[in-house]
Design goal:
Two copies of one chain form a homodimer.
Chain A: H1 6-13, H2 17-24, H3 34-46, H4 53-60, E1 65-70, H5 76-91, E2 95-100, H6 105-117, E3 122-125, H7 132-140, E4 145-148, E5 159-162, H8 164-177, E6 182-188, H9 193-207, E7 212-218, H10 223-234, E8 242-246, H11 249-261, E9 271-275, E10 289-292, H12 295-311, E11 319-322, E12 325-327
Parallel strand pairs in A: 1-2, 1-3, 3-4, 4-5, 5-11, 6-7, 6-8, 8-9, 9-10
Antiparallel strand pairs in A: 10-12
The first copy, chain A, binds a DNA duplex through residues 3, 5-7, 15-19, 21-22, 25, 27, 30-33, 36, 51-61.
Chain lengths: 332, 332
DNA sequence: CTGAAAGCGCTTACAG
DNA sequence: CTGAAAGCGCTTACAG
């Protein structure tokens, strides 16, 4: 695998590498005669020249690489985000490095270091619990970085997110308006701020209503088992108008499969609202109401914010909050 | 964002950059005194030195980057592959670049060029129809490349795949043994060899049996609409023992949602076997029988093959075919 | 045990 | 209109 270089072209064309570089980069600043221009282009084509971006990066200090760190790229939610970021990044001329943190701060840190060593121009990250250290280190270096989906308390960097608390409150309000007299919030037992916000929105709503509210907070591992057990203990068909609000797609999938297994009908026996859009909902007997995050817009904004930081770093970037939307189907 | 370099360390330590390079790379060949070693390491730590892999790459001609080209990273199947490849690649010290081709040969080619310019050490690709040109170009350059999931006819490069024809034949046999007297094969109208193999296996089985067989071949776009229409035309409840064999996860999801919408019960009204594992199946009222591909093993093997090519390129690599497995649940 | 030096493939002021 | 030269941050024979 020997690659041809600018030097080869220069030699064949009988010009300097500088000249080759200029025409290959289409710099209009320095006028090169059309004749040499044409000759160089032809030779480049003929010998199948492929520019070495790494050499270019070394000189220009721009790799045109950006790193994306998600919790798990195989999670529907993140793979959709990744796809939208990929498309948008391409438009800006960036190529995407992807890594999964598995909610593990050590792994998260490793990934930031790895990407940093690979000289990515910036990173889009979904920070995990206890990743403040890794993030702050990047900030100290003035490394362009934007958060997506999640955010960190006490850390001021640009990011995109949704109105987690508000949409949860809205969902809860909606359910009470539909005369549900018991609502079970299914969430994670976690310190992730955006998830706490979802819970907080729910609690805010509940505080003003006179209905039964339960919270089922489960660990981030063993989701399925925990949900099965939790619903076994907390849900009974006898109750009249119960609703379950699943605060993530993974929770919803696990919970809905529980309902399936136990022949609990939606919405006859229980109402359901889920979070995030996933193909899986299509296979449930009832079309599920869910909270839709505007992933494409979020992805676009995140790349835009990052590109802005790369071109002109400013500390203490602001967050952009998008409005999630409750999509009404037949599960309430 | 000013980064510290080996030169900074050398200056502070009062040694040459060569010495710094040696201790940082832990080369045991050239003995450096423990004293200077210690000093250098401490300084590196103190000034928060981050090695510039791009500079290293330029010199060593190894970027420790590998590119992964899938049809669409937001597709469950590919995001699972990506995740497994990511984990395995990390073990080998590679970082992953990811791109989606959208079944578009132009985009596929663009991606190979982009990755090539970024100096990836090799690529793992799921080739699309008419990507022979792009692939052959890489082969001519002796670029390490391995295919995954899919393969190309008349192109000899290493790759991992499954026994598509055999497993399809097996699925069909299984259905006839279960006394299904009509089988509808739902597949793509495509030239992708691995999908043609699936169809061929089905046909091979059918040829030996005395049952009704239908093929529903749909375009790669508008999957849902095409399947809805196709099943409307080809499936009727009156038939006694009909089975539908969906040859991909996307087809299965679309088809199962059709069954849901039309209150067609599985397995009472129709038997179903799907391809690939996806979370979505969990939400269907009946547990679906599906063909499981050993993704983790395949991902591992693909990285192993690629790494072997990177370290010692050999033309005409061989394919590794894994055995897919029919997972029996309750849908037949 | 350590250093001077060449060079990887580019870009870019500067000079002519 | 074009070229010589420096330099990006490393690695690595080679010499001492």
């Amino acid at each position: 695998m020997k690659r041809t270089s600018i030097k080869d072209i220069a030699k064949i064309a009988g010009v300097s590498v500088a000249t080759v570089s200029y025409v290959l980069n289409k710099k209009e600043g320095s006028r090169i005669s059309d004749a040499t221009k044409k000759k160089i282009l032809e030779i480049a084509e003929a010998i199948n020249y492929i520019p070495n971006k790494i050499a270019r990066s070394l000189k220009t200090n721009k790799s045109k690489l950006i790193g994306l760190i998600v919790a798990d790229i195989s999670n529907d939610f993140y793979s959709n985000i990744a796809r939208n970021i990929e498309d948008e990044a391409m438009k800006f001329g960036y190529t995407l490095l992807i890594g999964s943190s598995d909610e593990n701060p050590e792994k998260f840190k490793k990934l930031t270091e790895l990407f940093s060593e690979q000289q990515v121009d910036g990173m889009i990250v979904a920070p995990v619990v206890d990743s403040d250290g890794a993030i702050n280190k990047l900030i100290k270096e003035e490394y362009p970085i934007v958060t997506i989906d999640r955010y960190l308390k006490n850390v001021n960097i640009p990011g995109v997110m949704i109105n987690n608390s508000e949409i949860s409150e809205y969902v809860c309000d909606f359910l009470t308006e539909k005369k549900c007299n018991e609502i079970i919030y299914v969430g994670y037992d976690t310190k992730l701020p955006h998830l706490q916000d979802r819970q907080e929105g729910f609690e805010k709503c509940i505080a003003t209503k006179n209905i039964t509210a339960k919270k089922l907070l489960i660990g981030i591992h063993n989701i399925t088992e925990d949900i099965y057990q939790g619903l076994d203990e907390n849900f009974s068909k006898s109750k009249n108008k119960t609703a379950i609000y699943f605060s993530s797609n993974k929770l919803a999938v696990a919970g809905l499969s529980y309902l399936n297994k136990n022949n609990i009908r939606v919405p006859q026996d229980v109402s359901v609202i889920a979070f995030d859009e996933t193909e899986a909902y299509k296979l449930f007997p009832t079309e599920i109401d869910y909270v839709r995050q505007p992933l494409m817009e979020m992805a676009k904004e995140s790349v835009k914010l990052l590109d802005a930081q790369i071109n002109n770093y400013v500390p203490n970037g602001k967050k952009v909050a998008f409005s999630a939307q409750l999509i009404n189907k037949n599960s309430v």
